[in-house]
Amino acid sequence: MSEDINSINPDKVVDARGTACPGPLLEAKKAIGSVGVDQVVEIQSNDAGSRNDIPVWAKKVGHEYLGMIEAEGYDRHLLKRKK
Question: Whole-angstrom Cα distance, residue 35 to residue 76?
C-alpha cells in the first residue's frame, strides 16, 4: 500500500487519551463496529501498551492495522475495518 499514512482521513476518530490499558483497545473494538467495511478508524492513545495491543488485536480479528503516527504527547493508531 503506497498511500501515505499522514494523508489518510479517518472516517471516525476516537480520543482514548488518558485511559490506561485496556481502555484504548476497548475503544478500538467499539469504534470498528460502528464504521463500514474499508472505513478507517483513528484511535488516539497516550498509553504505551496500545503500541502493541492495538496492532496485535487488529491482526487477530482480521482488520488491517495501517500504522501509527506520533503526535504531540500521544499516538494516532489507524485501523481499517476488513469485515
Answer: 17
In a domain, 1, yes or no: no
As a whole number of angstroms, the distance between CA 22 and CA 42 comes to: 16
pLDDT digits (tens, 9 = 90+) for 32-42: 999 999 999 99
Active site residues: 21
Structural domain contains residue 30 = yes
Helices in the chain by DSSP H: which ranges? 23-32, 50-61
- Residue numbers of the domain that contains 54: 8-80
The residues facing 76 across adjacent strands are: 44, 69
Rounded to whole angstroms, the Cα distance separating 63 from 26 reads 15
Nearest to 44 by CA among 7, 10, 82, 3: 10
**Average pLDDT value for the chain:** 94
CATH of the domain at 16: 3.30.110.40
